[in-house]
Amino acid sequence: MDELDLADLFRKLGARDPDAWAQSQLQEGIPQLARFVFLRQAWRLLTSQPGRSWVAALKAQPAAIGPEAAAALDRIAAAGVTEEDLTAVVRIIERELLFSFCYLLSDPGDLEPEISDMAWGLFQVDEHGRPIAAIPGLHESVLETDPEGGGAD
Question: What span, in angstroms and rounded, lies between the C-alpha atoms of 38 and 145?
Fold first, then answer.
């Protein structure tokens, strides 16, 4: 796939700077398409997706969230906090969690001496599940893949 075709694919998938993603993949050998798609899918799993009434969805399943959380949501609403304000706070927490999780894939942090050589990573795999490309430094692209524009490309 040449750079124009790859940039068109990034554009179709929703990348804000598709030319830069394509150029980086082809010139630097970084599996940017796999990075972008993984992060796009991760963002889609978060509660605070645009247009999603996540509070109503959670309250419709009180057994799934537990009585404490359902009661807390009721108290928050009774205090006059709007779903938009609550979503803004939740979004910050989700973004930090996604960044931390992606960083953890590259660096396990301080481990006990007995397991200090332990590491893990994210890999693009072939149709048989065999690793074909490591996807390092995923945390570096979390903000630039924020569907609400939380970072610069």
Answer: 10
